[in-house]
Structure formats: structure tokens, C-alpha cells
Write a structure and sequence with these properties.
The chain is of the alpha/beta class. Helix content is 45%, strand content 19%. Keywords: Signal.
Length: 324
């Protein structure tokens, strides 16, 4: 009888503690780790979302850039952080591909995090130096295949979105190119603008302004349908490569063990942020759209991560590209 009374008392105390936590959270600023350099496409998305989430939470979210190793350094830092709701991670599709791409990870991708929700899925665009001679995407494919021994393809480093899209492109056309990895999207784009590299595949969040300015040439979007921001740009499906359809999705995570009250509150703040018209406009200018309220949930993000790990595993294994 005493034992049952003790258990009941512990349960009641836990419930009261949980309720008090939920009522008070957050009580101080939150750090959102972005595992890539400042100014890149994922950083741009993170800062837009963090600002609007801060307003809803009543506490500021500070964005901290922890770049390196294709995003795994920043993700690893969050995996080891105190699970108190005050350190979170905004990561892109690399969260899924790293599970296969890296032989040794400092964390278990599926089990080291709690899920908050999906943020957006950014389409990618195949772009080339502005004087590239191809007239359309089919012509582009023919020309790069014919010049495979002399042409080169840039990317922002192993595990970056541009690297993943590049692997998918090579797999789709069964052709290997000399690849030039950079330490970030910025320097890769700089050399593409200068004509030091021939082409790359990157997110609209990083290519839109250059395409509009005519400083690079766009050949195809990786989205299922044509982009509203570039209605005249054909899709990879229209160009004969439906298997290359891909979006660089972003999600928010917290360390494993973070109280459910915190992840639920963060998820609600994320939903509020993504429903804001200013966010929709800002995302639209970058060629993407916010996730829906149903997608900005822990369950939706968990399902997405699991399915994307399964999708990319055979692509990476076929390419035989791994990182230590």
C-alpha cells in the first residue's frame, strides 16, 4: 500500500513538474545550430524562420553556424547538447544522406534527436557558366557527356546539396565528371561566375539572383512542376530525366531526451512562422514555399527522414563515394 502511495506521489510530482516546465518554456534565448557557413542557402532559410519563431516564443533564437564535414559537425554538436529545449538544429537533406555517406558518424541519425518539424523543400536548378553553348537541357546533357573528359562540375563539398544533386545527375545519365569540391556554396558560385568551373546543381535559394541577373545560365529545375519564379525553365522530367526530381528539404531537430513539452512548443512556433505571409513572400523570392502545418510536425519530419535515408542509400553506394 505504501509502495503504491509512493508511486502515485512520484507520478503526481512528475506531472506537476512537466506542467510547470510547459508553462514556463522558454525562459531564455534558444540557440539554433545551422551546420553550414553563414550566407549559404540553409543559413538563409534558418534566419528567416528563427526571426519569426522568436516572435511567437517570446524569446530570441540565435543562429549559430557550425560548418564542416558536410553538416555532421554541427549535427553532432546538437546531438551531444543538453536536452533542455534550448539548443536545436536546422538541417537539410544531408541529415538523411550522412547516414550512408559517412562511414563513422558521432551520432545515430535516427535515434540521437527529437523531431520538431519540416520547414521547406527547396528545388534545385542545373546551372552553367553564362557562355555555355547548350540551348536546352537535352542539348546540355548531350554536350556534357561528349565533353566528360574535359568538363568539370562544382559542388560545395561532400554531403552538400550540390554534391548530392551532382551525384544524382551523374547516376541518371550514367556519366562521371571531374568534380571540384569547395568549402561552401559561396566560393563554388564565385568560380562558376568567373568561368573557372563549367556547371553545378544547386538550390534556388543560392542561384535565383544570379539566374535573374544573367550571370549564369539555367537549364532545368529538379522540381516535379515548373517553378513559379522561373515559368519558362523546363523541369528535369521534361528534359528526359524524371529520376532526377529532388528537393532539398529542411527540418528542425532537438537533442534526444528533450522534453515533449519543448518540442511541441517549438513545433507550434514553427507552424506559426511558416503561416506568416512575410515568410511566404521571402521564401517565394527564393524559389520555394513554406511547409504546411501538417508537415511542420514531429511525425512528418520523422517519416521524411526515414524515407529519405532509404532513398539515398543505394544512390550513394552505387557512386562509391564515402567520407571518413
Amino acid at each position: 500500500m505504501r509502495f503504491k502511495t509512493l508511486i502515485a506521489a512520484i507520478g503526481a510530482a512528475t506531472a506537476l513538474s512537466s506542467a510547470a516546465y510547459a508553462q514556463g518554456y522558454p525562459e531564455r534565448q534558444i540557440t539554433m545550430v545551422v551546420p553550414f557557413s553563414a550566407g549559404g542557402p540553409t543559413d538563409t532559410v534558418a534566419r528567416l524562420v528563427a526571426e519569426r519563431m522568436s516572435a511567437d516564443l517570446g524569446q530570441q533564437i540565435i543562429v549559430e553556424n557550425v560548418g564542416g564535414a558536410g553538416g555532421t559537425l554541427g549535427a553532432g554538436q546538437v546531438a551531444k547538447a543538453d536536452p533542455d529545449g534550448y539548443t536545436i538544429l536546422l538541417h537539410h537533406i544531408g541529415m538523411a544522406t550522412a547516414a550512408t555517406l559517412y562511414r563513422q558518424l558521432a551520432y545515430d541519425t535516427l535515434n540521437a534527436f527529437e523531431y520538431v518539424g519540416l520547414v521547406t523543400e527547396v528545388p534545385m536548378v542545373m546551372v552553367a557558366r553564362k557562355d555555355f553553348e547548350a540551348t536546352d537541357f537535352k542539348d546540355f546533357i548531350e554536350k556534357v557527356k561528349a565533353q566528360k573528359d574535359t568538363i568539370n562540375m562544382a559542388n560545395a563539398g561532400i554531403g552538400a546539396a550540390s554534391h548530392l544533386c551532382g551525384m544524382l545527375f551523374q547516376s541518371s545519365i550514367d556519366t562521371q565528371f571531374t568534380t571540384v569540391p569547395y568549402k561552401g556554396t559561396g566560393p563554388a558560385m564565385t568560380d562558376l561566375l568567373g568561368g573557372q568551373v563549367d556547371f553545378m546543381c544547386d538550390q534556388t535559394t543560392n542561384t535565383t539572383q544570379q539566374i535573374k541577373g544573367g550571370t549564369i545560365k539555367a537549364y532545368a529545375a529538379t522540381s516535379p512542376e515548373r517553378l513559379a519564379i522561373f515559368p519558362d525553365l523546363e523541369t528535369v522530367t521534361e528534359g528526359g530525366l524524371p529520376q532526377m526530381t529532388v528537393g532539398i528539404w529542411h527540418g528542425v531537430y532537438a537533442p534526444k531526451g528533450t522534453p515533449a513539452e519543448a518540442t511541441e512548443r517549438l513545433s507550434k512556433a514553427l507552424q506559426v512562422a511558416l503561416a506568416d505571409e512575410k515568410i511566404a513572400t521571402a521564401f517565394g523570392d527564393l524559389g520555394t514555399t513554406p511547409s504546411s502545418a501538417e508537415e511542420a510536425t514531429p511525425a512528418a519530419l520523422k517519416e521524411k527522414l526515414e524515407s529519405e535515408i532509404a532513398r539515398w542509400k543505394p544512390v550513394i553506394e552505387a557512386a562509391g563515394v564515402y567520407a571518413d
